[in-house]
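Quick one, T. Sequence first:
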Amino acid sequence: MTSIKDIQGDIIKFTNGQERQFDAIVFATGFKSTVRKWLKEDGGLFNEKGMPKHKSPNHWKGENGLYCVGFASAGLFGISNDAKNIANDIFRIVDGK
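Structure tokens:
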């Protein structure tokens, strides 16, 4: 794939001279967790790099009602699954099951 030279509206011009039209452009700029800087007591949920210690699909639930969303490295699909799992877990707690 070639690099982007210019973006004009919905047209992207590439360095190899090609132009293509796109409905949406998503820039994925990377991610570095800062959770260790602001969360003092995580109950062992996060490692030293600020990422969950447990791997997907069990990474989202900590202790004492602490949850994390979006750390599965699975994009919007992973975030959606995390949110559903958390909502279901909270429902089970509130419902007493």
